[in-house]
Amino acid sequence: MTGEERRKPALAVYRRLNRLYGPQKCALHYSTPHELLVATILSAQCTDVRVNQVTPALFSRYPDAAAFAAAVPAELEEAIRPVGFFRHKAAAIIGASQEIVTRYHGKVPQTMDELNQLPGIGRKTANVVLGDAFGVPGFPVDTHVNRLLNRIGLTTESDPVKIEAEINAAMPSRYWVNFSHLLIVHGRQVCQARKPQCETCVLKTSCRFAGGKQ
Fold it and tell me: So which residues are the catalytic ones?
């Protein structure tokens, strides 16, 4: 399916979900771009609800990039232990924060290339930060987005980078951020991994999964 062939069905899915849920924002709680960067790192293989339970005390203890850059690894690991994979996530947070302090004077950079060069920061995290903190169009692909787009039939890819490129080619950039959020909300509430609620889904008439075509 080419970008042009994908455009009409992609926009139809977007409009149905937008009518159902309305414009969406990132579910992670944050007040600065760096807090969003940290929260997004913490959210890997963890629910946003759990991350939001951890971050108030975390951001009070480490109020900015400089504080995270100077964190004692064992202490940061203990502070984020409830989100899982705490050693790997602590290393990523400290490493990225040190680079932000050293190279960008404590300010989170605002381009994909610069964010991707930070330790532990991939395209998904970069797209979240760019889209929600800076208003730069991007299409983050998490497990919900990946699952829904494959079920609906808008992609057959499993690689998030390839999926991102396909959607970016199919839709105007003004839709990217909200489309990702809409898919995530729908994935959590309706099109769940184990028990998708196909009977009540607004996408069932155009979904190959609901239609039994997979």
Answer: 124, 142
